[in-house]
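Figure 6 in text form: structure in, sequence out.
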């Protein structure tokens, strides 16, 4: 039997919820005891709701054409909010009274609930308003409609897979053809291609198809996708593009410095940047925005989507634009069938005719067709389909509903509960990335989720969300997993039906009129927000239920002390979020928000929480994620008996508060820190039977015996799918009873539904039998760390679904044998049947890995890593048919002679391994190998070019002093070649054998005299040669590389640069050392490098350039320069302005550690100069002030605030760093003021001791002066870089030094 189509009016679920609450109150005499007013008016209240409920469906439809009906619905909704607030106070009072009377109650509720009830709205007034509305409904002739089944099928399956795209194959190929056409504009390296068409036509979908096409991905070095939307801000947009390309966040607001950094990031790269949903049509703004993009390689493209033909004509290159047309009737029908889950071959002919007519009414708009198909999914009732086809909404005038009729219909037929959830999304700005879990918790706080038998509210919320996805009202994000977006047209639809009750405050305008009816408010933080304006908001919107601060990332001062209005006026708040704001404390008055159900303080600077927090009886969600300064939770937390979600991840709590077992409504508890005292031990977890998702239990060393562990009842918690068990790593606690430790872990056995397990610091000598038991059929990931007393590994081979296994810091394991692969030798199952990645780290006494051939173990292993296992001997398992990546590091006795032919990435470090691996490469057909890293081998090695696998694209050789190449052929695949501290005996190397090279780095090859190139290297883009003391010449190299963009020649004192041949027009960046030979011949730069925009001249502490007293000489520098750097030149005394006078484009001048530099000679610095940065050059101070650049700051005893106001945050190679020589307290204040990440006294101390955090790989580097060469070796040996091999990462080390403006060394 087909399910009913009709969904129900927007207010129907609200009325039902109020009636449900009212019925419970009327049935409980204790609630109304002594409240005569309530006893008199509540029955009349109930009668009113019963009378209006049947006419809501009629009013829902008539509101589109009758303004009086629409006003009636608005007035009714306002009255319902008042009524709901009153009833919530009443039921809360009753619940608190019951709690206080309960035996053994320890709570200290102190709120004057009765007085609050009086303030919450006079019940007689509320009932009077409702009775007036009942009378008005008669005058409006609203009809009672027959009660229908309003339940719409809610799918219990996971999210629907994205439907196939129909009718866009030709469009996709045309766009790709334009992207591959590098002749569109011969005069510019950049081409802008706009794709335009009406909203919902599929522009973004088409761009996504193109962006993810394999041919496109292969063509472009750098790709970025940026959603622009209506609020076009050149500064913010440039920052966003920079963040996407650099893969790190950026806090800069200076447009020029942002553009300069973006230019440097794009220089020498062939890029594709997609700007999605563009509205701005001012040509001058676009010209300013696009300036950095002209420094990329020829063939770079910007693909832009817009609804506006005017925008397309403004931005298009040479009138190059692509108009996207509507879908054909046939393609619309295909989309409809796909969304409706129907087949063209089996559909009923009558249904097919009606369906095609519906699809036709969508006017060729894909989004509308998807919405209609999603609406009718699973419904084959012809009558219902005809209701849709003949709906009068199709005929409503467009100026009345202002959105596509098909979308209005898709909303109209939503179930009432889903309408409220959908409209709630209008609080977020357009194109905001939505979090499913956050939305569900907010919906729950607003009481949008209708309870269903045997399902939690969270499960109901999941189903609601999936239904909105299935109906195309929300869409999965194109790149972020578990994130979602709302199409602009859907956002417009939500805004229309949100009406006066929702307000999104995006601009701090004093003239904004805030509607007194507003119940849901979001404030989008873009910068400093006037406190007085926020007070005005609070004063006008006293009945607000939702207050969401959505921080866009820009930092601005914000102190809760300035916001008493939040606590004193907004008494009806149910949802409150200050996520990512620099709050340090909450006032005690937070406890007066007795309606509050959702409180998010994540990523704030909160230090303590007031005890009054325990008064929030209704609180369901408390988010404290990444509150690193929070050490304790309030004692009163135990009184939050309705708390369902407590997120304390990445806090530094010392222990849990007492009485956590009282929180029996908890569905999610991210962490439990075991205490030593009664009522905060591990047994408190036992009563929390409803926990779901993930939990980490830490400080397990405080568990005394297995009896305590058993009381946690972990085996009964079937909702937990991820479990982390953590013992503190205290060296003083090494003396433990291993049997007790084993028993404790045994009693912590999780339920068999577990999917992920992590164990850290376990102190027993063996693992219990449950770990590895095949009954854990859902486990996909296991991580075991720092189990230093364990002598054997657990039997994990029989976990049927295990995909990822990491084992590290097992100090007592000597043998990995049969027991690791299977617990019972008679078992015939294949060990590790699904394992994809296997990693071993830091196992100093591991000697043997026994893996018998008959096991056929690890049939799907793709990635194998073994690091710091110096005693491991023998060979690797030789039956690894699927292995693609092998990384062996510091395993001197391990043989690597058997390499599987499926290998794609091979990284080997160590004397013995490198020797055996090189021999294996010579005798093995490695037809898939693309990346090869060879590190640390002092033995004589010979590597013939003919022996290098033909598929190899990247070759890194590091610290292999006696390696020699035999140039006995050509290799046509190699694109990246790095030779670092290697090939000591080689005096000459020819690059002719590698004609396809793109990037070349040669470091510290002291005897190398020449780099031979006799033919064109047409693909070469980057050439770096440094610390090659014997190198004589490199001019042939760069002259035979016509597309070379970046040339770095550092600390090569014998090198000569002289003009030869035609000028080099493609070079954009040049870094050279300051030597006598260079100085005498440097004048050629002006004539030879016409397009050069960045020049860095470095001194050399080893080979001093004592003759250089004055820089730069007149006539040296090309006029195209935009950035000039002088670094570490100890002899230079004078900065010569005459040598800079002709640099009309120069914007940045940086001088680093030129201690004798004292004079600036000449009239003035170039007028174009925007930034002068001086470090460790104290004699230059007075001269700088006289020259008056727009920004000038330097190290020294100057006003520290001034220094930090313009602090350079370097973004070269994706790093972000800060440096300041000041005292700890002063640095702390500055860090806090400027919102530098990890702001704490500790981070200030890090600055004080000259340490630095390099992102995004979190490599801590201790900084001391001098000896830069040792740094690279030490970094290579100790740095852990996720996803990037260290040898490759260290290639731009000099860039890193330049970026930080320091000599950096690792002690």
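Output sequence:
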């Amino acid at each position: 039997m087909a399910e009913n189509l009709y969904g129900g009016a927007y207010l129907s679920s609200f009325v039902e919820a109020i009636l449900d609450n009212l019925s419970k109150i009327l049935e409980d005499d204790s609630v109304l005891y002594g409240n005569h007013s309530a006893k008199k008016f509540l029955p009349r209240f109930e009668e009113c709701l019963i009378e209006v409920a049947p006419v809501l469906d009629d009013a829902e439809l008539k509101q589109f054409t009758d303004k009086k009906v629409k006003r009636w619905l608005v007035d009714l909704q306002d009255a319902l909010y008042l009524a709901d607030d009153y009833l919530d106070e009443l039921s809360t009072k009753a619940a608190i009274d019951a709690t206080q009377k309960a035996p053994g109650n320890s709570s200290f509720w102190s709120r004057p609930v009765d007085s609050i009830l009086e303030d919450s709205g006079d019940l007689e007034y509320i009932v009077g308003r409702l009775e007036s509305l009942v009378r008005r409904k008669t005058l409006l002739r609203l009809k009672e409609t027959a009660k229908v089944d309003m339940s719409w099928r809610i799918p219990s399956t996971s999210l629907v897979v994205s439907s196939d795209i129909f009718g866009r194959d030709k469009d996709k190929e045309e766009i790709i053809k334009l992207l591959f056409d590098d002749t569109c504009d011969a005069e510019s390296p950049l081409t802008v291609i706009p794709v335009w068409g009406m909203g919902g036509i599929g522009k973004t979908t088409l761009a996504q198809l193109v962006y993810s096409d394999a041919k496109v991905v292969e063509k472009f070095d750098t790709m970025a996708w940026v959603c622009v939307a209506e609020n076009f801000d050149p500064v913010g947009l440039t920052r966003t593009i920079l963040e996407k390309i650099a893969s790190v966040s950026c806090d800069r607001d200076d447009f020029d410095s942002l553009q300069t950094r973006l230019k440097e990031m794009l220089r020498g790269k062939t890029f594709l940047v997609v700007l999605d949903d563009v509205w701005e049509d001012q040509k001058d703004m676009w010209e300013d925005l696009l300036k950095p993009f002209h420094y990329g390689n020829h063939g770079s493209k910007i693909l832009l989507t817009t609804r506006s033909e005017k925008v397309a004509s403004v931005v298009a290159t040479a009138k190059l634009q692509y108009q996207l047309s509507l879908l054909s009737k046939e393609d619309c029908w295909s989309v409809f069938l796909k969304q409706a889950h129907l087949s063209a071959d089996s559909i009923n002919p009558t249904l097919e005719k009606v369906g095609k007519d519906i699809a036709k009414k969508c006017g060729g708009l894909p989004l509308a067709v998807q919405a209609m198909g999603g609406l009718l999914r699973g419904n084959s009732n012809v009558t219902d389909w005809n209701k849709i086809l003949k709906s009068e909404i199709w005929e409503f005038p467009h100026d009345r509903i202002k959105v596509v009729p098909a979308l209005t219909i898709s909303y109209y037929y939503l179930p009432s509960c889903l309408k409220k959830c959908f409209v709630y999304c209008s609080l977020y700005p357009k194109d905001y990335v939505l979090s499913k879990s956050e939305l569900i918790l907010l919906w729950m706080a607003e009481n949008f989720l209708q309870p269903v038998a045997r399902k939690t509210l969270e499960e109901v919320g999941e189903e609601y969300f999936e239904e909105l996805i299935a109906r195309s009202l929300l869409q999965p994000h194109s790149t972020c997993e578990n994130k979602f977006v709302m199409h602009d047209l859907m956002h417009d639809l939500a805004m229309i039906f949100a009406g006066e009750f929702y307000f999104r405050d995006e601009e701090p305008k004093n003239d904004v009129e805030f509607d007194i009816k507003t119940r849901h408010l979001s404030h989008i933080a873009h910068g400093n927000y006037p406190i007085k304006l926020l007070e005005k908001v609070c004063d006008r919107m006293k009945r607000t239920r939702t207050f969401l601060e959505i921080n866009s990332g820009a930092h601005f001062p914000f102190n809760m002390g300035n916001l008493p209005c939040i606590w004193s006026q907004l008494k009806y708040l149910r949802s409150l979020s200050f996520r990512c704001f620099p709050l340090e404390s909450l006032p005690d008055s937070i406890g007066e928000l007795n309606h509050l159900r959702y409180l998010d303080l994540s990523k704030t600077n909160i230090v303590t929480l007031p005890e009054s927090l325990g008064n929030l009886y209704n609180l369901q969600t408390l988010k404290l994620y990444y509150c690193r300064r929070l050490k304790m939770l309030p004692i009163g937390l135990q009184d939050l008996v309705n708390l369902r979600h407590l997120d304390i991840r990445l806090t530094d709590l010392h222990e849990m508060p007492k009485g956590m077992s009282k929180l029996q409504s908890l569905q999610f508890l991210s962490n439990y820190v075991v205490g030593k005292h009664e009522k905060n031990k591990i047994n408190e977890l036992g009563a929390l039977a409803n926990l779901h998702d993930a939990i980490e239990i830490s400080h397990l060393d405080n568990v005394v015996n297995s009896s305590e562990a058993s009381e946690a009842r972990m085996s009964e918690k079937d909702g937990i799918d991820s479990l982390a068990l953590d013992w503190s790593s205290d060296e003083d606690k090494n003396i433990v009873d291993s049997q007790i430790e084993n028993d404790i872990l045994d009693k912590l056995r999780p339920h068999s539904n577990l999917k992920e397990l992590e164990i850290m610091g376990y102190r027993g000598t063996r693992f219990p039998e449950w770990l590895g038991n095949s009954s854990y059929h859902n486990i996909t990931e296991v991580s075991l760390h720092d189990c230093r007393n364990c002598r054997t590994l657990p039997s994990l081979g029989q976990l049927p679904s295990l995909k990822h296994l990491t084992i590290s810091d097992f100090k007592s394991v000597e043998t990995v044998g049969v027991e690791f692969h299977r617990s019972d030798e008679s078992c015939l199952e294949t060990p590790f049947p699904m394992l994809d990645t296997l990693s071993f780290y830091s196992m100093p006494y591991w000697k043997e890995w026994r893996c018998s051939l008959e096991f056929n173990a690890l049939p799907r292993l793709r990635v194998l890593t073994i690091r710091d296992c110096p005693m491991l001997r023998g060979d690797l398992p030789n039956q690894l048919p699927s292995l693609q990546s092998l990384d062996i590091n510091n395993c001197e006795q391990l043989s690597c002679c058997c390499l599987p032919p499926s290998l794609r990435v091979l990284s080997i470090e160590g004397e013995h391994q490198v020797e055996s691996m090189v021999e294996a490469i010579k005798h093995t057909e490695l037809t898939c190998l693309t990346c090869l890293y060879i590190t640390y081998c002092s033995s004589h090695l010979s590597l013939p070019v003919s022996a290098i696998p033909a598929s190899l694209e990247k070759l890194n050789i590091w610290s292999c002093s006696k390696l020699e190449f035999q140039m006995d052929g050509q290799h046509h695949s190699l694109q990246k070649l790095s030779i670092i501290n290697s090939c000591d005996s080689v005096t000459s190397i020819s690059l002719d054998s590698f004609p396809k090279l793109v990037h070349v780095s040669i470091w510290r090859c002291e005897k190398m005299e020449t780099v031979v190139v006799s033919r064109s290297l047409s693909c070469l883009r980057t050439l770096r040669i440094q610390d090659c003391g014997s190198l004589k010449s490199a001019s042939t190299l760069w002259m035979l590389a016509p597309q070379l963009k970046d040339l770095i020649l550092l600390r090569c004192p014998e090198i000569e640069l002289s003009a030869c041949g035609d000028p080099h027009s493609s070079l954009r960046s040049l870094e050279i050392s300051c030597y006598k030979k260079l100085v005498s011949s440097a004048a050629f730069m002006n004539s030879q490098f016409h397009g050069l925009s960045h020049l860095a001249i470095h001194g050399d502490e080893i080979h001093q350039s004592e003759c250089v007293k004055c820089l730069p000489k007149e006539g040296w520098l090309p006029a195209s320069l935009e950035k000039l750097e002088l670094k570490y030149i100890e002899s230079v005394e004078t900065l010569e302005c005459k040598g800079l006078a002709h640099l009309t484009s120069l914007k940045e001048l940086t001088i680093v550690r030129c201690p004798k530099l004292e004079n600036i000679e000449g009239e003035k610095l170039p007028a174009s100069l925007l930034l002068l940065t001086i470090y460790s050059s104290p004699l230059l101070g007075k001269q700088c002030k006289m020259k008056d650049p727009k920004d000038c700051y330097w190290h020294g005893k100057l006003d520290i605030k001034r220094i930090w106001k313009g602090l350079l945050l370097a973004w070269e190679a994706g790093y972000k760093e800060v440096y300041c020589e000041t005292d700890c307290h002063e640095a702390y204040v500055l860090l806090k003021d400027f919102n530098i990440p990890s702001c704490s006294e500790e981070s200030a101390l890090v600055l004080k001791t000259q340490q630095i955090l390099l992102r995004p790989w979190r490599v801590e580097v201790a900084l001391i002066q001098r000896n830069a060469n040792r740094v690279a070796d030490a970094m290579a040996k100790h740095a852990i870089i996720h996803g990037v091999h260290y040898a490759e990462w260290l290639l731009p080390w000099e860039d890193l030094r330049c970026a930080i403006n320091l000599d950096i060394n690792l002690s």
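Caption detail: DSSP finds 39 helices and 51 strands in the chain.
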